[in-house]
């Protein structure tokens, strides 16, 4: 059987190649009549985009699209997002997610256990509480009160296998030490597989609806075998996701610690505000990271995906291998991102 993480990168691109023709590299720009539009990170974004498209193509709101879209990935057995993801080093899957709409409303959950759809809990936090973020047992308590079922907490077969393998060495190391310690201690996701593909645990989605309104979502099981209680960038508004309806929106994927250090998604949106294109803005954020962290980056990956309010799309990654999925009226494709260290 194919390794699940390899399957994500390999087969999705293959099927797009068959269905849609060649895979493209340059960032598309969609004219206003081509709205609505949805983009999401990695190849798994193809399936998520379809669910989002069902909402958008019927004139639905971007906020509903980005929630419905990433729920598909949270449900999927072929992905590390959601309860099928890798556990922390104590053997528990803990989930982080956030959502943001066109009015600057946002909600987030972190360190949430045994709830299948953290993105929907994040939306309830946004809509039903005076807060932006709930974490841990408080987030779970809120989810249960809102009627979300408590799941079993049993690891998926793949996650159980990966955890047993990790336990053989079971040492946590800071990400910048990974480059020396990865062989000894196992991966601290996302890391590069022997095949050269990236092991990734996050989906971020951005949508622009027919009314020209933007929303975004981001959901993850976080870094595999993380310290208990670790929270990455994905639930942090401004790091894993930022939406400004007057300018554009950005989502991040990759090593959360590095993304948090530069408040990555907010930084990208601010670059767009200054007049840069989405791709230039993502590139400038990666440049900032490289300047800040210099030789401390180790072997980690960091990726940004952005759209502006006119529908221009752009991305940039630290290393090769980042892909993103686009769905619009006249296209459904996976694009390869440019990266700092070449393609
Ligand atoms: N970007 C996902 C994480 O680091 O948790």
N- and C-termini, Cα separation: 29 Å
CATH level-1 class: Alpha Beta
Helix share of residues?
A: 25-40%
CATH superfamily: (Glycosyl)asparaginase
If classified by CATH, what would the architecture be?
4-Layer Sandwich
> Structural class, from helix and strand content?
alpha+beta
Number of helices: 10
Instruction: State the total count of DSSP E strands.
Output: 12
SSE succession? HEHHEEHEHHHEEEEHHHEEEE
What's the rounded overall pLDDT mean? 85
Structure, explained:
The protein is 34% helix and 20% strand. By secondary structure, the protein is an alpha+beta fold. It has a single domain, classed as 4-Layer Sandwich (Glutamine Phosphoribosylpyrophosphate, subunit 1, domain 1), CATH 3.60.20. The strands form two sheets. Strands 4-3-2-6-5-1-11-12 form an eight-stranded mixed β-sheet. Strands 7-8-9-10 form a four-stranded antiparallel β-sheet. Mean pLDDT is 85; it is low at 1-24 and 175-196. Residues 201-202, 220, 222-223, 232-234, 253-256 line the site of glycine (GLY).
Structural descriptors:
single chain; 343 residues; alpha+beta; Glutamine Phosphoribosylpyrophosphate, subunit 1, domain 1; eight-stranded mixed beta sheet; four-stranded antiparallel beta sheet; 20% strand; globular
Question: What's the layout of helices and strands?
Answer:
Elements: H1 4-20, E1 37-41, H2 45-56, H3 62-75, E2 95-100, E3 106-112, H4 118-128, E4 133-135, H5 136-145, H6 157-167, H7 178-185, E5 202-208, E6 214-220, E7 241-244, E8 248-254, H8 256-261, H9 264-273, H10 278-293, E9 302-308, E10 313-317, E11 323-328, E12 331-336
Parallel strand pairs: 3-4
Antiparallel strand pairs: 1-5, 1-11, 2-3, 2-6, 5-6, 7-8, 8-9, 9-10, 11-12
Helix pairs in contact: 2-3, 3-4, 9-10
The structure holds glycine.
